[in-house]
Amino acid sequence: MARKKGPFDAVQFTLESAERIANVVRQSETEAPPASPLRFGKVLQQSVPKQVRAATFSGPWPIGSTKVVTFSYAPIATANVANLSWPITDSGYVNERCIVGKEGTNWWLVVPVLERRTAVFVTQTQQQTFCSQTGSQAVVTSVAASLNTANCVISVTASTTTVSIVSATATAVFIAATATSSYLRLRVP
Fold it and tell me: Is-contact 176 110, C-beta < 8 A?
């Protein structure tokens, strides 16, 4: 059985074939090309550079809407920018800063100005019972008796005091421990 030719094996031409190929090459080298030259490399898709710019906007800018922004360092340059992710519904924004980005021919809102805030968060609670309703009642606190031997009369005296009585209770949850933490939020004018 004959050996199969590999992709890197030498190719052999007859004398007539070699002369025919040489004539075609000479003819193509002497003629002017009718169009751009042939390319044999990979043709890559031309990449469009991405841009990020600082800009300002005014008024509300809800998700899914487009707004005209003014570039910060070129005050007469503007662009139509789409907001896909930030819920900016307050109408109090005036010349509010933001970062916009361009991909291809479209501009997008990247991020509005965020503020860092500090908040106190509850980390532990405690349940306690307290009086929710009270009343008052007179209570005998001491009794004294005396005997009159002359006429055989016993005298009894009682001392009373008014005391508060719990007539109803309620259970409440109180803060037992807290922690301070920071979070980011949209800047609201």
Answer: no
Which of residues 112, 131, 147 is at a domain's end?
Answer: 112
Going by C-beta distance under 8 Å and a sequence separation of 6 or more, which residues neighbour residue 144?
Answer: 156, 157, 158, 159
DSSP 17: H
| CA 189 – CA 186 distance, rounded (Å) | 10
* DSSP conformation class of 88: B
| Residue range 145-172, pLDDT digits in tens | 888 888 888 888 888 888 887 778 888 8
The pTM assigned to this predicted structure is 0.44
How many angstroms separate the CA atoms of 86 and 110, rounded? 9
Considering the domain architecture, whether residues 179 and 124 belong to the same structural domain is answered as yes
Tell me, yes or no, whether 170 and 144 share the same domain: yes
Of the candidate ranges 31-45, 106-120, 139-153, the one whose mean pLDDT is the lowest: 31-45
Does 21 map to a domain?
Answer: no
- Judge whether 188 and 90 are in contact, CB under 8 Å: yes
Rg (C-alpha) for the chain, rounded Å, is 47
Identify the residue with better confidence: 142 or 124: 124
List pLDDT tens digits, range 97-106: 999 999 888 9
Residue 69: name the closest of 79, 59, 84 by CA: 79
Look at residue 43 and tell me whether its pLDDT is greater than 60.
Answer: no
**Which tokens sit at 25?**
């090459």
What single string gives the DSSP state of each residue in 30-46?
Answer: HSPPSSSPP--S--PPP
